[in-house]
Design a protein that fits this description.
Blueprint: H1 2-28, H2 48-74, H3 79-107
Helix pairs in contact: 2-3
Length: about 120
């Protein structure tokens, strides 16, 4: 009888431990939590023109996701939560992949256009 009472508590503690571990793994990655999902050798054989094209695609993707998160934050109620749940992991992955593309381009001495840090005007 005592064993049945402790099983749900044990399962709950396992779930909490698994969640905490996954969250901490994302924090320990040097390029951010998004790099956890990217193959480190993905661009090891890419040519300069491919790296430049991918860099442009990722910059556009990052801008789109950032705008979607900002729009979700403007909405009332749980907009910020929806923005985080729906877009944040994709945003972090895009940022990490951009770093990887830039690193691969630097190793090959490729010239790729660096996107501006901000597309907002100075007021």
């Amino acid at each position: 009888m005592q064993e049945r009472a402790t099983m749900p508590a044990f399962r709950a503690s396992l779930v909490v431990a698994a969640l905490a571990t996954s969250l901490l793994c994302g924090c320990s990655v040097s390029d951010g939590p998004g790099s956890f999902y990217i193959d480190p050798g993905r661009y090891s054989v890419a040519h300069c023109d491919e790296l430049a094209r991918r860099s442009k695609e990722l910059a556009e993707r990052e801008k789109l996701l950032r705008n979607l998160m900002e729009k979700a934050n403007e909405g009332g109620g749980g907009g910020a939560i929806v923005g985080v749940v729906a877009y944040r992991s994709d945003y972090e992955t895009a940022l990490a992949e951009q770093k990887q593309v830039r690193r691969a381009a630097a190793e090959r001495k490729c010239e790729i256009a660096q996107p501006y840090q901000s597309d907002q005007s100075i007021r």
